[in-house]
Amino acid sequence: MISPQLTLPRQTLADVDTPFLALDIDKMDKNVARLANKLNALGAAIRPHLKTVKSIDASERILANKSAGATVSTLKEAEELAAAGFNNLLYAVGIDPSKLPRVMALRRQGVDIAILLDSEHQAQAVIDACTETDIDIPVLIEIDCDGHRGGILADDPKLLQIAAILEPRQLLRGVLNHAGESYSCDSPQDLIACAENERATAVAAAKNLHKAGFNCPMVSIGSSPTAHFSANLKGVTEVRAGVYVFFDLVMAGIGVCQIEDIALSVVTTVIGHREDKGWIMIDAGWMALSRDRGTARQKIDQGYGLVCDLAGVPIPGLIVGDVSQEHGQISLRTDSTAQLPQLKIGTRLRILPNHACATGAQHSQYHVFSAAQSEQKTDSETQQLAVQAVWPRIKGW
Fold first, then answer.
1. Rounded distance between C-alpha atoms, residue 32 and residue 111, angstroms
2. Are 135 and 115 in contact (CB under 8 A)?
3. How far, in Å, CA of 394 to CA of 363, rounded?
4. How far apart are the C-alpha atoms of 244 and 223, rounded to whole Å?
5. What is the pLDDT of residue 379?
6. pTM exceeding the 0.85 threshold for the entire prediction
7. How far apart are the C-alpha atoms of 23 and 368, rounded to whole Å?
8. Which residues pair with 24 in a beta bridge?
9. Residue 212 burial (CB count, 10 A)
10. What is the tens place of the pLDDT at every residue in 237-251?
């Protein structure tokens, strides 16, 4: 059931002013259950990365138990979630020491929030602050498994040096890594290998800590691609993933999902035509779709988004080929043999996003609908997709 307090007067996707963010709750629920079932079978807990949804309502849908683990990417997310009763959080961005007072404020409220770091400097700042205030902050050390971002190697001497700095107050809770390079994979074999490397690297770091006499109870790994292609999670305590809740065109291009699994879209309206250029103009530019071009590096370039009718069915050959601030230009793919359709001004369309996190960040709320619960029109086979709730998104840092 969708939150009754957010139920709206009768509206459909054809009624709300465009552009707006539409969320197919049936697809979201299916995506959440799919990964939960897989990880349960492999014996690992899931710690959803709520940076994708950035919504209290969506988070409650994903985690019925608010004491179950969740991941955040901003302290604003942590603060909003804590205020809503979520009390087991991991702030999975390297800690800036100036933010420690905000973390400590959450700890004082009874929120079990842990932080991430990968340097002696950060570790010393944390131990100093905890000693001064007598408020302990659990710490995970970030491990680099693929050179994608931050972290240290599993056998780097810094690993034990950081652990030694944290030892006087026993702040070390575990290790964490993220196989960011999995987003560049394009075959099941590569994804399986990437997932195993992610697991093995984190487990190796934990073993090195144990051998040196340090406690390391948490081994946290994860990305949406590797989470879905993991075959072995031995030694792992939890898996983090975020975009799996909605999926997007990048995930479909990698092979993690199908186009029909994508739960998020931007509803837009046709506002003009440029027949001389082969363009259909819409009122969704980069302010609505984002500038993310993640599929440009994949085998199929989806432009700034895949064009669907209002029911969510892709229209053959059409992508958003270019954008300006508030205008989008729909065009045929360069290799398409389809004909540019005659879409009248006022026609509503849905655009599937390259990157759900980036597109979601352009909006302040979701218009939630359920195709399964919407009524069928009596005069056609199309559905009147009723907006059943509006879920606010968390903004800021």
1. 25
2. no
3. 10
4. 9
5. 39
6. yes
7. 5
8. 369
9. 12
10. 999 999 999 999 999
- pLDDT value, residue 380: 40
pLDDT tens-digit readout, 165-181:
999 999 999 999 999 99
Domain with CATH 3.20.20.10 in the chain: 43-241
The per-residue b/e assignment along 30-43, b for 16 or more CB within 10 angstroms, e otherwise, is ebbeebeebbeeee
- Long-range CB contacts for residues 306-310, cutoff 8 Å, separation at least 24: 306/249, 306/259, 306/351, 306/352, 307/349, 307/350, 307/351, 308/265, 308/349, 308/350, 308/351, 308/352, 309/349, 309/350, 310/13, 310/14, 310/267, 310/348, 310/349, 310/350, 310/382, 310/385
- Write out the DSSP string of 162-173: HHHHHGGGT-EE
H helical segments located in the chain: 25-42, 56-62, 75-83, 100-108, 120-133, 157-166, 188-211, 224-229, 249-254, 286-289, 356-360
Rounded to 5 degrees, φ, ψ at 63 are -120, 95
CATH of domain 259-392: 2.40.37.20
The segment(s) of the chain belonging to CATH 2.40.37.20 are 259-392
Give residues with Cβ within 8 angstroms of 245, minimum separation 6.
28, 31, 32, 48, 52, 53, 58, 62, 263
- Quick one: tokens of 316? 């053959």
Read off φ and ψ for residue 300, nearest 5 degrees: -115, 115
Helix (H) or strand (E) holding 140: strand 139-142
CB 318 within 8 A of CB 304: no
Q: Other CB atoms closer than 10 Å to residue 397's CB: what's the count?
A: 9
Length of the chain: 397
Of 365, 166, 181, the closest CA to residue 267 belongs to 365
5, pLDDT greater than 50:
no
- CATH number for the domain whose boundaries are 43-241: 3.20.20.10
Q: What 3-state class would DSSP assign to 303?
A: strand
User: C-alpha distances in angstroms, 187 versus 69, 193, 233, 253, 255?
Assistant: 31, 10, 20, 10, 7
Amino acid (one-letter) located at 348: R
Answer yes or no: are the C-beta atoms of 320 and 307 closer than 8 Å. yes
Q: Read off the pLDDT of residues 111-156 as tens digits, 9 standing for 90 and up.
A: 999 999 999 999 999 999 999 999 999 999 999 999 999 999 999 9
DSSP-derived 3-state class of residue 177 = coil
SS3 348: strand
